[in-house]
Fold this sequence. Notes:
Blueprint: H1 5-10, E1 18-21, E2 25-29, E3 37-43, H2 58-75, E4 82-85, H3 89-92, E5 101-105
Antiparallel strand pairs: 1-2, 2-3, 3-5, 4-5
Zinc ion (ZN) binds next to helix 1.
Amino acid sequence: MEDCIFCKIINKEIPSNIVYEDDEILAFRDIHPVAPIHVLVIPKKHITSLVELEKEDEAIIGKIYGAINKIATQEGILEKGFRVIVNCGEDGGQEVKHLHFHLLGGKKMGPKIA
Ligand code: 5GP
Ligand code: ZN
């Protein structure tokens, strides 16, 4: 989608530090990490947010969690654990309007999620 920063990252128009890629999914390091490991995992299809999810998109969500597992293994955080966050819409604090999963790890997360 034009003017979408994550679509530009997918198309390699904007450089990023890619940690995982397959036909349907891209994962790259967040430019402003809030944990020692902070990876954004996104579908290559432009889906604006969880609100815009269509029936046909449900399979990709499962695949994204599969990719998260692989990335957590690669990053060496599978055993100690990690946190996955999806911000959705204004109240959820979503800034980039292309569905993305934050994978956070490498430190003990705080007890608060809000
Ligand atoms: P949101 O607040 O929408 O859930 O998260 C968007 C995330 O994208 C933020 O953590 C922000 O640091 C990250 N981000 C925004 N622009 C870029 C970029 O151009 N490159 C990378 N690697 N991350 C970005
Ligand atoms: Zn996009």
